[in-house]
Amino acid sequence: DPDMEYGVDEEYGDYDTGYEGIGMVGGGIPKDDTETLISSYYSKTMCKETGLTIWQCHECDKSSKWKTQIKNHVEAIHLAKVLLFSCSFCSHVNHTSAGLKMHTRRNHTNV
């Protein structure tokens, strides 16, 4: 699709991948199960028009050159009501791992 966007409209910051220090609340989903659930919402594919490797969301066909951006998109848009990430240093809870990482960087840099 020539009109394909590569995450231009969404801002997620420069988040690393991974779930270090993240706990689950509300029944608790184990970290491995969380990874499996999130990754089931997207896959790596090749854009037919450009030949570039892209990451494609299965729910809404959003695509990006960056896996992390699609992973963050899935958490924020499609799984926000399913996943909760709790801070291991305080009572803060976030709906995305990227949001929790930002919270940790801003509030717990000396821990």
Q: How would you describe what is shown here?
A:
By secondary structure, the chain is α+β, with helices and mostly antiparallel strands. It is 29% helix and 18% strand. The protein has 3 helices and 6 strands; from the N terminus they run βαβββαββα. It has helices at 31-39, 67-78, 97-107, and strands at residues 22-24, 42-46, 53-57, 63-64, 85-87, 93-94. The strands form 2 sheets. It has a 3-stranded antiparallel beta sheet with strand order 1-5-6, with helices on one face. A 3-stranded antiparallel beta sheet has the order 2-3-4, with helices on one face. The longest helix is centred in the middle third of the chain and has 12 residues, at 67-78. The chain is elongated and about 45 Å long. Residues 1-27 have low confidence and may be disordered.
Using the alpha-carbon principal axes, give the shape: elongated
State the end-to-end distance. Answer: 46 Å
Our Rg estimate from Cα atoms comes to 15 Å
SSE class: alpha+beta
Mean pLDDT: 78
Number of helices: 3
Would you identify the regions where 5 or more consecutive residues have pLDDT less than 50?
Answer: 1-27
Order of helices and strands: EHEEEHEEH
Key terms:
111 residues; elongated; 3 helices; disordered N terminus; three-stranded antiparallel β-sheet; alpha+beta
In short, what is this structure?
With 111 residues, this protein is of the alpha+beta class. The protein has helices spanning 31-39, 67-78, 97-107; strands at residues 22-24, 42-46, 53-57, 63-64, 85-87, 93-94.
